Structure formats: structure tokens, C-alpha cells
């Protein structure tokens, strides 16, 4: 199941939105560049669909081979013009189509929410091994969770989109995570944008969230182990103890900081 976050590319709508954006920098975009931008968004949309289809095919094959669907669901979205401009401004880059092409790798984004951690690693490995796409960058926040407890596997792929002018290798950011990691990340994201909380409450909630990340991981390890025992789907060799130890040490580091 793919959940569309925002609508697919609607070129006249993008054009309209671009024209009504109130960023001062947008005044620098020529009519030609706006057309180029709209065309570019269509290519990203194509790339996103290519990767989604590959993932759906893998999920179906798993169902046939192992009687197990590794993917619980997927979400996908294209960055809006507003958020693209915001990101270019934050990175102090010129607001041009070239900047987007050269520096922004998450214009097209897919979130793959898997049932178990084994699924995260098998699906990402089978996708990464496909000969027509390239892996541009991997950030494994599952093996190396962030300080706040965030876990997910981020991979940026370059996928060829075949246009009349030939293949255009286009980046797509894929975030692989389990249902539990997604559940956690949604609340943490909400907390991060809750700016009206007093600092002390924010710090307390952040600490609790870190504890929750650890508890969720514990639950996942146990459920994964039952699932491994009763299903024949591919398994990951990574030691659970190592990952738990890593999260535990993050907790101690944070507590240490709180006390100092
Ligand atoms: P930006 O895209 O500029 O953020 O830099 P990056 O691509 O180097 O970042 P990274 O790959 O680390 O993270 C990209 C995306 O992952 C973000 O846009 C979020 O969707 C998600 N993400 C990263 N860190 C966190 C986090 O701590 N909490 C939550 N909830 N999501 C995160
Ligand atoms: Mg990003």
C-alpha cells in the first residue's frame, strides 16, 4: 500500500504556486527557469514511481516465496516548491534549478515502513543490488542511532528515468524503518516542532523518548526472534546485543549531560 503524501505532479498547479510564492529570491527566477523547474519536478516524480514499483515487486515476491510481506506500507512525497526554497536558503545556495539538481537529494522521498528489522535490511539490500540503480549515500541510524534515539536506514539512490532525450539519473531518498521506529519518529518530530514548551519539559520529554527508543528496540528484538522462529523469510546476521549496547550507551551519555 502506498500512501501519497501530497498530490502527484500537477504541472499547472506547480506553475501557479511558483508564481504566488512570496520569497524575495523567486523574483530572480526567469520564466524559462520556472518551466525548467516544472519539467524537473516531473522527472523526480518519475524516479519516485520507478523506485516505488521496484519495492512493490519485491514485496509481492516475498509474499509468494516466503508467505510474508516485509513492507507494511509506504509513504511518498515530492518536496514542495516552498520547502525546496527554504532548504536552499538554509544552505545559502542560489535559488536556481541547477542548485536543486546539484545539492538537494531529497526532492523525491519514499518512506518504507517494514514489519521487522530483518525486513528493513533484506528489502534495502535487494533494492540496492539491482543493476539499473546506483547507491549514492547510506546513513544507517539503526546500527548507529542518533543521540536523540532516532533510528532508520536512509539510502539515496540514483535511478534512470527514460525521457525522450534519454536516461536521466535522478536521486530519490528512501527511509527504511520498522513500524516501531516510525511510531517513535512521528512523536519525536511532533515534539521538535512544539516550540512553546518550557525548556525543562522539553528536556524531560526528550529523555523519556530516549528511554522509549530503547524499550521499543527491546520489544522489536523479542518479536523479531519469535518471527524468525516461525517464518522462513531471510534473516539479518547483525547481533542484537551490539545494537542494544549502543542505544544503552547513548542513554548514559545523555543522562551524564543532564547532570553536568
Ligand atoms: P537534511 O535533508 O538537510 O535534513 O540533511 P540530511 O539529508 O543529511 O539528513 P538525514 O539523512 O540525516 O535526515 C533526513 C531526514 O530524516 C529528515 O528530513 C527527517 O525526515 C529524517 N530524520 C533525520 N533525523 C531525524 C530525527 O532525529 N528525528 C526524526 N523524527 N526524523 C529525523
Ligand atoms: Mg534529507
From TrEMBL:
Occurrences of domain RelA/SpoT (ranges): 76-199
Feature: compositional bias, Basic and acidic residues: 244-260
Cited Pfam families: RelA_SpoT
InterPro entries: GTP_Pyrophosphokinase, NT_sf, RelA_SpoT
Chain intervals for the UniProt region annotation (Disordered): 226-260
Gene3D superfamilies linked: Beta Polymerase, domain 2, Nucleotidyltransferase
Protein's UniProt name: GTP pyrophosphokinase
Organism: Bombiscardovia apis
